[in-house]
Structures are given as C-alpha cells and as structure tokens.
Specification:
The protein is an alpha/beta fold and 331 residues long. It is 28% helix and 18% strand. Helix 2 packs across helix 11 and helix 7 packs across helix 8.
C-alpha cells in the first residue's frame, strides 16, 4: 500500500510550504510533539527549516511512545539530511534551551511547570488562529506575567490557506456519518468565520444548503445558498423539513450549544425538520440531553473544546500548511 509519507510528493510538499512562507529556523531550538498520522510533520518541518528539534511524546490511549518513535523513524527515511532528537521526558535542561515551543497535543498543557524553565526570549507558537484559543492549552496569565510571547497563525494567509480545506472537512464529516451530498439538503448553523468556507464546497454538491449565521457574515456566502435566519434564532422554512443533516459549527468550541436551556433551541429544530443528523463540526453538545430527546448526532464522542473533524482527517496537505504557518509565527 502506498501512503502519503512513503513517496516523494510528501517531501516535495513540505519543501514547497517552507519555501512559500520563507521559513528559516537556523539557530533556533524548537520543542514540539512527536505525533502519529499527519501531525508527524511538525518536527520534520522545523528540522528541514534548519532548527535543532526536540520531539516529545508520552504514552496515551492513542498509542505507546515506542510505537510513535518507530513511526517517526520510518518517516525520516525520506529525510536523511535532518536530525531530530526524540524525548519522553521534559527536563529543565531541555526546556532551558528552547526558543520556540508549540501547543501541540503531547505538550499540553503548557503550564507553569513547563513554562517556568523557558529561557528569556522563548516564544509559544499556537497552531491555530487567535480566536480559537483554549485556556486548557496554555497558562496565558503565567505567560503574560513572565513576558512569554504567544503567537497564533493566520490560517487564511494566502501561503497557508488552511480555511480552504474546511469544506473538504465538512464533506468528510457528512460521508463518515453515513450520508451523501447528492440530492440531499443540509442546514449549516454557524456563528464564526468557518461558515462561508464550508458553504463554498458544500453548496454545489448537495441539493440545497440552508444557512443560519450571524447577519454580518451573510455577505460572505455564495448566492446560491438559502439564508434561513440570524444566529441564534432557529427559523427553518418548510422546504427543509426533509433535510438530512445539520452541520453545527459554533464557537466557543467548549460551550454547549445544544443542551437544556442552551442558546440554540433543539425543540425548534426537531419541530421543523424530520429527524436530521446533527453533524458535530465544532461546538460542544450535551449528548445525554440529545439522547433523551432522541436526536441523532455524529461523531458520538468529541472531547470538550475540540472539533468533531480536524484537518488531518482530509490528509497531509492542510496539516503541512498549518504547522509551517505556526512555526513561522514563532520564528
């Protein structure tokens, strides 16, 4: 079986992303995670860009350190010119060397126990946009008091373009839920900048897309979608009674948007639609409440504050672009 990481295109795309963003990390020491799957690219990108790199991993429910490190060693066969130091302990001596630390999975939370050892001038790179910040990722107050800069990537920058993949992610979510777009109707409920990017891909592929969003975002949507109401009011016309799915893309991610006494009224949705699947793009829901109300939803399990579908679900391309952009912020 041919995988993305076993062919020359993988290396080519990393080099291309580094070149486009003019990422130069020579003389920098980077601490990031060693992850499996598409997120394995982060330490590789940093090393190819010239940094001295530490990649940290710990045993989790998703895998053992020994297996993760072996996975990385396989990927590095494509990059014989670089060196990465893989570690499973964050010692003070390592932390004192760091110029750039990412908020990547295995390193979370970046709390006082980690941040207190950073050298003066060290930077925290967030691998997402500023408005997506989660307090569970970084002790922002400690960083502020101790003058540790925190930078977030602009995912809409022309040379990053991660938002362009939001539509692909929505399509993946729909298909994984057992639905299809052809000849089916969907409703998008959104209150952030994701909506127009999702609609751009979804609208021409489905029978009809109805949108509930903030009024200020209406001008950014395609003309061939149907505006239903202003968020959080749930007004759904009769022609969407037979919609197959409702794409929920709401922020803050950790707020419960479908729950008892939540901003969005589940009863209105159930009354105006005939048993659609709630497609959890982002935004928490109270699954116990949904079960009680006999509402269908997908995925079944999403960690609070996280998305139900992520860039890596549609391949390496958006992750390479995102992680390169995040490292550029720190560099």
């Amino acid at each position: 079986m041919i995988t993305q990481t076993s062919n020359s295109r993988f290396k080519e795309k990393i080099n291309q992303s580094i070149s486009q963003l003019e990422l130069d990390l020579k003389g920098k020491v980077v601490l990031t995670e060693a992850a499996s799957g598409p997120y394995c690219v982060t330490p590789i990108i940093a090393a190819v860009a010239g940094a001295q790199v530490y990649a940290y991993a710990k045993d989790t429910k998703y895998g053992r350190v020994v297996d993760i490190f072996q996975y990385h060693h396989e990927q590095l066969k494509n990059f014989p010119e670089i060196k990465i130091e893989y570690i499973e302990e964050l010692t003070p001596s390592v932390l004192q060397e760091i110029d750039i630390i990412t908020n990547s999975g295995h390193l979370r939370p970046l709390d006082e126990e980690k941040l207190k050892f950073l050298n003066k001038g060290a930077v925290i790179s967030l691998m997402y946009e500023k408005w997506e910040f989660r307090s569970s990722d970084v002790d922002i107050e400690y960083a502020r008091v101790h003058n540790i800069p925190i930078g977030a990537v602009n995912e809409r920058h022309a040379q990053v373009g991660v938002f362009e993949y939001l539509g692909d992610m929505a399509i993946r979510l729909i298909l994984d839920a057992g639905l299809c777009l052809e000849n089916n109707k969907f409703i998008l409920i959104c209150n952030n900048d994701f909506g127009p990017f999702i609609a751009q891909k979804i609208t021409p592929l489905c029978k009809e897309l109805g949108v509930i969003d903030l009024r200020r975002n209406q001008k950014n949507y395609r003309k061939d979608m149907k505006w239903l109401s202003e968020f959080p009011n749930v007004e759904i016309s009769k022609d969407f009674l037979d919609c197959d799915g409702i794409i929920l893309a709401t922020y803050p991610f950790e707020e419960k948007w479908l729950a008892q006494n939540a901003q969005l009224n589940l009863a209105d949705i159930q009354q105006k639609c005939n048993d659609p699947v709630i497609l959890r793009f982002c935004g928490d829901v109270d699954t116990a409440f949904l079960d009680q109300q006999c509402s269908r939803y997908y995925p079944a399990n999403v960690s609070s504050g996280h998305m139900g579908v992520i860039p890596s679900d549609v391949g390496y391309d958006p992750v390479i672009r995102l992680q390169t952009g995040g490292l550029k912020v720190g560099g």
